[in-house]
Amino acid sequence: MIQLSYSPRVSNFVDAADVSGNIRNVPLYLQYLHQIDVACKKADITTGAVYPIVGGTATSHSFNFLNPAQYQVNWFGVVTHSSNGMQSDGTTGYGNTGIKTTQFNLSSGLMMGIYAYNTGTSGQRASIGAYSSSGGDTNSFQLRPFYNFTSSQTFSFGQFITLVTSPIKGSQIANKIPNVNIRSLARNGIELISDNTSLSNISINADIYILCYNNNNPSLGTNTPSFFSNNTHGLFAITNGISSVLNTKIFSHDIYTANRSIGR
């Protein structure tokens, strides 16, 4: 174990994700991880995965902060890794988290979130997701923060889809609050929208991808990456739901300030 005055969760993550001192020897990165740890504790995030995307390498970026022994990302295609985060080439690069859509009960809550270092370009570009055309958009998990739409932001069709028309740098947190029919979308500590919507669990059993979504369209074959993102990401989260609209805003603020602390 490394000797740090940080929590066991930070130490365990560093032990797993560090490559030749690229995290443990950088005080700013250790403080960043401490901020992520505090943010998760405040939001009571305990299950699923949070990828802090720190260290600048494919290996370091693949580990789950909540539990490094679970949900390590497998990278495919062209993904560029740097101190700013990671970026798909927009046509081939993505990651498979190994998290199944069926691992989340929507009535019990679900949170999906990102931090975007740059704005990328608008269009049908997904940061996180899995989808089945057999049920259309009613059978999907998707976070599409840079989708062209008619309003500035919306929880539109589907089981759990967020659409935002303007590419904006910063955090974006989409949350289905546990055990109530409320969804909330927050960016950089500001509530963008919340609504009262009943959601049913989706029927597909598919791996959730990042930097695109996993398209299970029967005409394409299962597990086909689609709608590739082309902006640089500094964090991904796919976890249990956060308990309230207020706490969703607080978590989005904490993720924003943590990333800004390391110059992203």
SSE blueprint:
Layout: H1 8-17, H2 27-42, E1 48-51, H3 58-61, E2 74-76, E3 79-82, E4 85-88, E5 94-100, E6 110-116, E7 128-131, E8 140-144, E9 153-154, E10 160-164, E11 170-176, E12 182-187, E13 190-196, E14 207-210, E15 213-215, E16 224-226, E17 233-239, H4 245-260
Parallel strand pairs: 7-15, 8-10
Antiparallel strand pairs: 1-17, 2-5, 3-4, 5-14, 6-11, 6-17, 7-8, 7-14, 9-10, 11-12, 12-13, 15-16
Helix pairs in contact: 2-4
Task: Give a description of the structure.
The protein has 264 residues and is of the alpha+beta class. It has one domain: Jelly Rolls (Sandwich), CATH 2.60.120. 17% of the residues lie in helices and 31% in strands. The protein is built from four helices and 17 strands. The protein has helices spanning 8-17, 27-42, 58-61, 245-260; strands at 48-51, 74-76, 79-82, 85-88, 94-100, 110-116, 128-131, 140-144, 153-154, 160-164, 170-176, 182-187, 190-196, 207-210, 213-215, 224-226, 233-239. The strands form three sheets. Strands 2, 5, 7, 8, 9, 10, 14, 15 and 16 form a nine-stranded mixed beta sheet that branches. The protein has a six-stranded antiparallel beta sheet with strand order 1-17-6-11-12-13, with helices on one face. A two-stranded antiparallel ribbon has the order 3-4. Helix 2 packs antiparallel against helix 4 (245-260). The longest helix has 16 residues, at 27-42. Residues 147-161 have low confidence and may be disordered.
